[in-house]
């Protein structure tokens, strides 16, 4: 039998006593609410720019209807704050402006902040391509057509204010942002008729000032034929409502609280007439306005695929996990009958998910080459 090196009741100098261990645990337990709150607060401050766009993407239309201060306003952003067009003070050179638009539940930071391993396209293009980069933030819970009209108005103001600095325009949109760009193109070429008691505008009837200066459009992971996730959500909601018992009606009502922006993703509604149509919620073949590419503009349709190889049915439907390759390229941009000089280029980036399209060296190299 081995004798203990210390008498009974005494503790090793390398081992705290039971009372000391108990008191330490008690202090930690008592301070946990304070330290936990501090951790949550610091985390919330660090990721504050994420929470507000997510809230707006989910219920931004409701916030805007209530004039809630948390509803994001459509605006250009600089140094983390809204900036008016008149306050940009853009120099005349370089005369090429690249405007970035984020997707659903995103903000302008997705184009700017990253690490050395995740290149962010805005600062790199400004540094290496010598272009002016502007960043838009919008309430992604609003109808796509509402944001499209606001983008049309902003680009018109930008060109009118800085005619020398905006001789060439390039628009880059990720996901929903690409649909907003296409919607703005529609409203830029289909202006509202002037009232009878007002003189007609001096510009050509179907020519917004910025459309004539638009050179290229880059669509990154854009659901040009709609989102399969929203289509499935809508179908599930309809089925639950048809069952027509209290629990399923409740679930259907909860699902239907998603924002108008999310609902527009179902079939990529770009024009207000589409979602205002009484048949807009039809499961099969809802009315949808054809919005073709703008003439004279180079379109670059870039989509991601989780798979190594393209061409499979899974790749066509699931694509980058959120946008299928079939939807990303779409019928307009993927029409095999398009002539070679149509101004449309499509490319699939294998083994890329929806988010990695925003921070991929190959995607950036493509942007750098064509911007």
TrEMBL record:
> Which residues are the signal sequence here?
none
The major lineage groups are: Bacteria, Pseudomonadati, Bacteroidota, Cytophagia, Cytophagales
Q: Which InterPro entries is this protein grouped with?
A: AB_hydrolase_1 (IPR000073), AB_hydrolase_fold (IPR029058)
This protein is called AB hydrolase-1 domain-containing protein
* Pfam annotation, one family: Abhydrolase_6
Q: What positions does the domain AB hydrolase-1 occupy?
A: 98-271
